[in-house]
Amino acid sequence: MGGSYNVIIVGAGMAGLCAACEAAQSGAKVLVLEKEEAIGGSSLLSGSFMAFAGTDLQKKVGIVDTSDLLIEDMLEVGQGKNEKKLVEAYGAHQLETYQWLVENGVEFEAVRAASGHSVPRGHTIKPLQAITTLYNKALATGNVSFELEAIVKRLRKNSDGQISVVIYERDGLEYFAKAEQGVILTCGGFSKSEDMLESFAPQLHAALRIGGKGNVGDGIKLAWEHGAWVRDLPYLQGTYGFHPTASGEKKSQAHVFYKGAIIVNKQGKRFVNESISYKLLGTEALKQPETVSYQIWDQAIMNESVSGDALYDFENLYALGLIEKADSLEELAKMIDVPVVSLKETVAKYNEDIQSGGDQEFGRTTLTHTFGQPKPIIQAPYYAMVTTVAMLATYAGLEVNADAEVLNPYNEPIEGLYAAGEIAGGFHGAGYMTGSSLGKASIFGRIAAQKVVAKPVQIKENLSI
Q1: Which residues form the FAD-dependent oxidoreductase 2 FAD-binding domain (predicted)?
Q2: Residue segments in the chain with a per-residue pLDDT below the cut of 50
Q3: Domain count, the chain
């Protein structure tokens, strides 16, 4: 324990494992510190999508997609609040990263449309398979050491001002490890820190807390001590689509609205365009009476259930008793305790608009973003799922540049310090495209490793501790 390494990585989720593999495959000696008892972090709780464009999987099913369209969609979903250079770096490296993941054994199963997609580009994985495969690949290089239940306490600079020492605790003992070329923070956000959420996102007090249990913002604090700036705090939002019984271990999530369902409140009224980002849907849902809302759909939409899919396996949620089913809208309204007349009027008005060419109330013209055509809700039986908002991931954090270097308030790199994954801010802006979280974790995890390994090895041993 302790010792000297080329690279020290803090956190063993998707970003950390991609960084570890990339660095180790370049011959670097790597230490990965993970404070939990197992690897994976919140990546194991993800919706299983990774956003890539121009892949073989897309071409196989006739989907035409490009990096330029991907970038355009991300900037539009982020309402122009994203750091454009980060989004462009994603676009520039996304296809090679997809191919790198495939070459390293990550299995992509299908391509689906989801939030923010102009065309289907959600490449589905089994998170456990991906995480386990990358972990084994890192070990197989012989260049990576993993220490679990290792809690990083502080970072320290050497006499040249470069972050070079990681102080961590394990089994009640304190250790010092030296990073010759750099430290990469990949330790997640703060969705499980009530103090930080109360400070930065009090509007989310009613949202479920289902992020990775280690996501308490400690990595952000490690960097803050050394002058790191933060981005996107004003855009902290919950994720819409969860049943109230959801927890970290039990996702209980359905995005039926992206297949054509409408969303109503306890008064049986629509309140939003259902095709927008589920982050923005979450913001509107939390404004509703008792912060309760319902997804409403019919059998035609139910038939689009996808077995085993994290977002679209409606049949599984029905089997678990989390979805109500009725032969009529009157019966359904009574089951979920919303006014019968109101729900019938809402569905009738929506159907009339959709059948005559456009949603007059909220302007819905697609299923999600610019993809798909809405359909009337007319085929019995009818379904409803009480749906709420969850704080799954924070998507705000340390400001970084396109080289994954952590920046200070003057836009200058903090020497020796890098960040990738959820801990990094500036990428998503005011919205969120499905699949871009795991996507940016893999892409910027690799970029960070490449940049660190390319740095000269330190010569001085005089450390300021």
Answers
A1: 7-438
A2: 459-465
A3: 2
